TrEMBL record, chains A, B:
Family in the record: Belongs to the tRNA pseudouridine synthase TruA family.
Name assigned to this protein: tRNA pseudouridine synthase A
Subunit structure comment from the entry: Homodimer.
One Gene Ontology MF term: tRNA pseudouridine(38-40) synthase activity
Source species: Anaerobacillus arseniciselenatis
EC number(s) from the headed UniProt entry: 5.4.99.12
Top-level lineage group: Bacteria
Gene field: truA
Sequence positions that bind substrate: 111
Record-linked InterPro entries: PsdUridine_synth_cat_dom_sf (IPR020103), PsdUridine_synth_TruA (IPR001406), PsdUridine_synth_TruA_a/b_dom (IPR020097), PsdUridine_synth_TruA_C (IPR020095), TruA/RsuA/RluB/E/F_N (IPR020094)
Length: 247, 247
């Protein structure tokens, strides 16, 4: 048996999220079906760094699986791509140590969230950008974001649907970058709770728009009350950008 | 009656082309259905600058129609957008002269064609870029493109399915621009035949790749034989960019 570590990108538009569901097309099911074809009908289970929700994209999702196949490593890339649909792309595939685990070994993750500004929605970006046509103060958003850095209980920024008991996470950095008619949010942390990035972005945008004060975030965090935070920004603006492991 | 001139963008991915067909979703049918709603069930026919094929996009398609409605011009934009699907966007809507015609009054048109290069297809651009992962000489393509400028019989660069007798057209400019991992072709002309841009791009790419000589284009043009030209580049890389009228 070999343990294979694989990095993929996917366009979340036509997926019902990453994790296998009773209904709807999922990234995990497509990959496991593809692997089953390569393994002549044997079921192969994959273990990912974490799930992503409906409509959420990935540039660098990572998963591992074990295989008895003796395919040379350089052929794995094409072999796997051949059995995957057009909206999943193999970025890198390597042999990992036997004890590597794509979820438990995560050191940090980066998510990026993209907002389209301006008067009118650009239909060519409609599946990849959150259209937010309001005047925004980036300066006030940066102030608010800085209050979220470091280790906090993020209960206020977490969907009630989470299955995680421990809501303490560490955010290492939040960068807010202005492009021509876009805003890009970059979050790096040791891990993120369900909807956490999307609620952070929704809340920061409300600060940017002047609907709340940048200092307000401190009270929202300490309240541990989801109702105090802002709206959940839609999934289609979010990209799981990179998953970092030791070495 | 007022004559309305409207500029729209559409994402061709999920359309069976512009023109109404017995089967499949079309841009024209969606717009006429929307206008029918605004006109309380009356049929309104639209006249576009020309059709676009399946998968082809538009940034600046233009059409006109006549309406008895007394909607103030500033409200037309939102009124029409409201009855259109998410993959058609109203860019501009104005009142035109009674004798304006979106097809007959065209002075020139600009099409742009986009190619993605590199080792691997970028799934986030898969509906908007032609993936062509070969080494290319832009210099040789520019030489070949220059032979196509001016007035020629473009029979060699036209689909047999055309309904046009006269195959003489004038190309005013062809620009080939290199971006990071993309090539952009810009064509301005008085009009283009069916598949003409796509066959030109396919042929130019074959020149760029070294499969044909840049001088070869001269013989292809004068042969008036479609078999002599290159492959038809796929529709999803093509955008109807702009339609120009007098004033």
């Amino acid at each position: 048996m070999k343990r294979i570590k694989c990095k993929i990108a996917y366009d979340g538009t036509f997926f019902n999220g990453f994790q296998i569901q009773p209904k709807g097309r999922t990234v995990q099911a497509e990959i496991e079906n593809g692997l089953k074809k390569l393994h002549k009908g044997s079921e192969i289970k994959i273990y990912a760094s974490g799930r992503t929700d409906t409509l959420v994209h990935a540039k660098g999702q990572v998963f591992h699986f074990d295989t008895p196949l003796q395919i040379p490593l350089e052929r794995w890339h094409n072999a796997l791509q051949t059995v995957l649909p057009a909206d999943i792309s193999v970025i890198e595939i390597i042999e990992a140590n036997d004890d590597f685990h794509a979820r438990f070994d995560v050191v940090s993750k980066e998510y990026r969230y993209f907002v389209q500004r301006g008067r009118r929605i650009d239909i060519f970006r409609r599946h990849y950008r959150y259209f937010y046509p309001y005047q925004i103060s980036v300066e006030n958003m940066v102030k608010a974001a800085n209050h979220c850095l470091g280790t906090h209980d993020f209960t206020s920024f977490c969907s009630a649907k989470t299955d995680k008991e421990d809501k303490v996470r560490t955010i290492y950095s939040i960068d807010i970058i202005e492009h021509e008619d876009e805003l890009e949010f970059r979050f790096v942390g040791d891990g993120f709770l369900r909807n956490m990035i999307r609620i952070l972005v929704g809340t920061l945008l409300e600060v940017g728009r002047g609907r709340r004060n940048s200092e307000d975030i401190v009270a929202v965090l300490s309240s541990k009350d989801r109702e105090r935070a802002g709206h959940t920004a839609p999934g289609h603006g979010l990209f799981l950008w990179q998953v970092n492991y030791n070495n």
